[in-house]
Design a protein that fits this description.
This protein is mostly helical and about 120 residues long. The chain has a single domain, classed as Up-down Bundle (3 helical TM bundles of succinate and fumarate reductases). About 75% of the residues lie in helices and about 0% in strands. The longest helix is centred in the middle third of the chain and has 29 residues. The radius of gyration is 21 Å and the shape is elongated. The termini are far apart.
Length: about 120
Amino acid sequence: MSTNYGSKRTVVGAHYGLRDWLSQRATAALMALFTIVVLAQLLFAQGPIGYDLWAGIFAHQWMRVLTFAVIVGLAWHAWVGVRDIFMDYIKPVGVRLVLQVLAIVWLVGCAGWGMQILWRL
């Protein structure tokens, strides 16, 4: 005779859990670090804040690499959040798939545009 403790539970979803939680925290930490670096450069800058100052901040290769990482991290951070919202609240699979594809296209386009702006400075 077997004992049944509770009902059988059907688990659905993609089971991303810990990986998504960690990626959200890592990308948020990267964006916070970037914000602190940019604010520090602005606070210690001499003269008026204009195009020349901004171009000077992003002229250094290390700053461009950090900004590149932040753009990629921001796109990934947004994707994880939007995907989770779609999985939680959009039940028809076809509608959810279309929205996910549109979100991916939008995020890749925005990241590409950010890269284009960054490397033109």
